[in-house]
Write a structure and sequence with these properties.
By secondary structure, the protein is an alpha+beta fold. The protein contains ten helices and 26 strands. The protein has helices at residues 70-73, 130-137, 148-159, 184-194, 219-223, 253-257, 271-276, 301-304, 365-375, 475-488, and strands at 17-18, 22-28, 35-39, 44-52, 59-66, 81-83, 85-87, 94-96, 105-117, 120-128, 140-146, 166-168, 175-182, 205-210, 213-218, 236-238, 262-267, 281-288, 293-300, 329-330, 344-348, 380-386, 396-400, 421-433, 438-446, 457-460. Strands 2, 3, 4, 5, 6, 9, 10, 16, 17, 22, 23, 24 and 25 form a 13-stranded mixed β-sheet that branches. A three-stranded antiparallel β-sheet has the order 1-7-8, with no helix packed on it. A three-stranded mixed β-sheet has the order 12-15-14. α3 runs antiparallel to α4 (184-194). The longest helix is centred in the C-terminal third of the chain and has 14 residues, at 475-488. The radius of gyration is 28 Å and the shape is globular. The N and C termini lie far apart (77 Å). The mean pLDDT is 90.
Length: 496
């Protein structure tokens, strides 16, 4: 998407196009049936829009400096709508919150209301997609039959009553579920966990909203295109000085937009968390209630890694088999993926619960879904860059992280070989500062593979490398010794 930037239209990094901002009251205007509208563009000093793979809809807020007492005259009650458009100049993709061509957002909260001067007040108005409001008003009480993508579409159109664009990734299998008093998003979340992507060997999907609409999508579809090749990165972010003209005398606006203002490696690895979460290994006990039998299915991260696409590919767009977050190593004669009992899952294999309807996938489905998703939690980077509405959560980006060492021939690119590479965009905060006339983004990225494979080690470098003299001490004996020594030494002070 960054390659679609037109330098004639977008002349500076962080430039934005923001329309009029209107608050729409539930109260009708005097003498008519149309709702009362108030333009607040001149009173807004900051706009924030949030999108998140783990969220259920777009949210945001506007920071107001109100000298007209709109809070009382509209009035603001938590039942208003807000309308505006935001996009990067020259890019059609953006946020359309208008009632004519898009979908208004709904005001649900006011916070931080305080006096700025005797005649001026400041406050923050929080808004969210209408679906988040509708979700709180409805609960489901019916049976759903069909593929999971069909069920999600039914709930989205019928129960959430949404007319927004819905992009669905097809799922495998005909299922049957009974919703008993669950809210729409809660039930969709359960369906998403059980869903199997139609064209990928994985389990579990995401249901989220970005600027294009709502999406039901698997992790692997975010990482690879349907013909079996890795999905191209839409951006290449790098930390370097700004306004480098490259000898031409003209600033390269595309490079400027992809220059990082700052970044933080939030997590690089967490072995204990990965062990506890079953990233490396787990065991699923599948039990048949009818026949009173059970069978164990062991999940092995090292064996499963090469079967799926990850953030890093093999260099030619294919699946990688050696760039996992767990190096191949000899740990006391085993691999870390050999300890299956670190996490136990229970799963029913009782069949024919709904007659001829297909059952959920058995075996390591749950283990694989959680391992794939939770592996991303261990490697996360946050970065700040100039705003661009062409970027969305779920996109793949490349990030070059500096190598903090003296320059040398052993690392001519001066990049971190493990943390640099391809990332999945987890969330974005778009921030519009109207006083500085600047659009910036705070981006959270995650990955589940390293760019350069970790070294392999066949030798056991753990066994026998610790002090083997184990010492056991009884606390009461230690206390008795302390008292005896104090009394014998005529040291009454220690007993006082």
């Amino acid at each position: 998407m960054y390659n679609q930037i037109n330098a004639d239209t977008l002349t500076s990094a962080g430039q934005f196009a923001l329309s009029d901002i209107q608050l729409i009251s539930y109260v009708s205007a005097e003498g008519g049936s149309e709702p009362k509208k108030v333009s607040v563009r001149s009173q807004v000093i900051e706009v924030n829009i949030y999108e998140d793979l783990f969220g259920k809809g777009l949210t945001g807020n506007v920071v107001m400096v109100d000298g007209q007492n709109i809070a009382n005259h509209l009035p603001l009650t938590g039942f208003e709508r807000i309308e505006f458009k935001l996009n990067t100049p020259g890019i059609s993709k953006g946020f359309d919150f208008t009632s004519v061509t898009g979908h208004p957002m709904y005001i649900y909260k006011i916070s931080g209301r305080q006096e700025l001067s005797p005649r001026t007040q400041g406050y923050v108005l929080h808004f969210a997609s209408k679906e988040l409001i509708t979700n709180e008003q409805n609960k489901l009480h019916r049976v759903y039959t069909g593929t999971i993508d069909q069920m999600v579409m039914d709930i989205f159109r019928t129960d959430l009553k949404s007319n927004k664009t819905l992009i669905l990734e097809e799922t495998k299998g005909t299922r049957k579920y009974v919703a008993t008093g669950k809210r729409p998003f809660e039930f969709i979340s359960e369906l998403s966990k059980s869903a199997e992507a139609g064209r990928y060997n994985n389990s579990g999907m995401f249901f989220y909203e970005d600027s294009t609409g709502y999406r039901l999508r698997s992790l692997e579809n975010m990482l690879a295109i349907t013909d079996g090749a890795a999905r191209p990165a839409v951006a290449r972010f790098e930390k370097k000085p700004r306004s480098v003209k490259g000898g031409s005398g003209i600033t390269n606006i595309i490079q400027e937009m992809q220059t990082v203002d700052g970044f933080t490696i939030e997590n690089q690895f967490d072995t204990i968390k990965n062990l506890r979460n079953g990233v490396y290994a787990s065991r699923t006990i599948a039990h048949d209630l009818m026949n009173k039998t059970f069978i164990n299915f062991d999940y092995d991260y090292n064996l499963e890694f090469s079967k799926n696409f990850h953030t890093e590919h093999d260099g030619n767009g294919g699946k990688s088999d050696n760039k996992s977050v767990a190096p191949l190593m000899n740990y006391e004669g085993k691999q870390f993926s050999d300890f299956a009992e670190t996490v136990l899952y229970l799963q029913s294999t009782t069949t024919k619960i709904h007659n001829d309807i297909e059952d959920e996938p058995k075996g390591t489905n749950t283990a694989k879904r959680l391992s794939q998703r939770l592996a991303f939690a261990a490697m996360q980077v946050s970065l700040n860059a100039r705003g661009f509405t062409g970027l969305s959560c779920g996109d793949v980006v490349a990030l070059e992280i500096p190598s903090y060492e003296p320059a040398g021939v052993d690392n001519p690119l001066d990049h971190d070989p493990y943390m640099s590479g391809r990332y999945l965009v987890k969330s974005i905060r778009h921030k519009i500062d109207t006083s500085k006339d600047m659009h910036t983004m705070a981006i959270s990225c995650m990955k589940d593979a390293v760019r350069v494979a970790y070294p392999e080690e066949n030798n056991d470098t753990f066994t026998g490398r610790e002090n083997s003299e184990a010492t056991n001490i009884l606390q009461y004996e230690l206390d008795d010794t302390l008292i005896t020594e104090a009394s014998g030494g005529n040291n009454d002070g220690i007993l006082s």
